Amino acid sequence: MGPVTIQIIGEGQIFPVIQFGSDTQFPDGLIYAIGKVCPWCDEPIAAGDRGSLIWEITAAEYGSWHQECLLRSFVGSVAHQLKTCHCFGGSVRDNEPPEGMTKRQQAKAAAEHYEAQQIHNQGAQIHARQ
Description:
By secondary structure, the protein is α+β, with helices and mostly antiparallel strands. It has helices at about 65-75, 80, 105-130, and strands at about 5, 5-10, 15-20, 25, 50-55, 60-65.
């Protein structure tokens, strides 16, 4: 497999989102994500991580997000997705990782749960059409 180039979402927009993967080759002059700290989990982006560079207006620069951390920031924790967190009257605090998990581990679990639900829902839709 050859080198993968970046994918720019919203090209032509004022502040596009730039997605990167484990074998991304950035064009000259673009700030590279490795070593920057993800604003969700406070862990640095490592070589081989997937994620996005998102323009942060207050910092006037691109912020680097792990793919699963960005997704978790939109869809919530596993407890939130299951509607068992405090948002829905449950006892789990949605913004705190479960005992023994880092914020990054929680984000990975939330992303995996969300993606599994999407696959399940697509299968159910296909089955309903038959």
